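Notes from the 1:1 (GR / supervisor)

We went over the backlog. Supervisor wanted to see one worked example end to end before approving the batch request, so GR pasted a single chain during the call. The sequence is below; no edits were made to it. Supervisor asked that the structure be written out right there so they could see what the output format looks like.
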Amino acid sequence: MAIPDHEHHVRLTLFRSELNAAYGLRDGMAVALRLPYDVKDQRVRYTTLAGEPYTPPYGDIHHRSETLRGVSDGALLVRWQPAAGGASQWQLGIGTTLPLGETVADPVALGREGKTHEHLQFGSGVFAPELDVAWSRPVAGVVASGAIQATVPLTTNGRGFRAPKNFRWSIGPSFRAAGTGIALSAAGQYQTIGRWHGETDEGTGFSNGGLRLQLSFPPLGGVSIAPSVYRELYSHGLNDETFSQGTTLGLTLSRSF
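Structure output shown during the call:
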């Protein structure tokens, strides 16, 4: 069957909740656990290259409108803050992801066979080293800070998937006004291309960046509340796909015991 060239327009709305817990081992050292739960709402439409609506003859074996829910890969890290030798503060974290999220069978191979397959996953299927470095320094009533986080899978899972490497960064000032903490930062991510038995995994491989504004209110009933908003300013795909991230809203609730 001759199938004309056409485009897949995929909108993915993500809802993520995370439980983050840290326990102090001694002065300047703690162990941290991250457990996420995701809801992935996908909506798909097809068009010809001229932009006209199109219904592909292969149906929804490739992409489909659906909502998936599940636990995603967590992480376990040891964080260390060296004794301050000056105005600057450093924090180092090293550990591993926890392969708790569900994985799928090779969608590239199944697609070639004309079989229904799934591209959305909740995990990588492997333990992947994770590293983060954070720095801060007070300057004239403002705290300048920056952070780099890296997740670097080194192995392929049992289904033939090699997860992409992820590098996240942020830098910017923070200060207090009328008892409220205000942090404005430039932030972004660089992700390499994932592979299925050596072949490109769609939906991976991009770089982006934008601005994040976060407010930190005084504790209420012992609970600190910090809402945030992130707006993407640029995005670039590393293969023949294009990516665009909409506005991201966040809310952090924390309490110390």
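Supervisor's comment: Residues 107-112 form the longest helix (6 residues).
Batch request approved.
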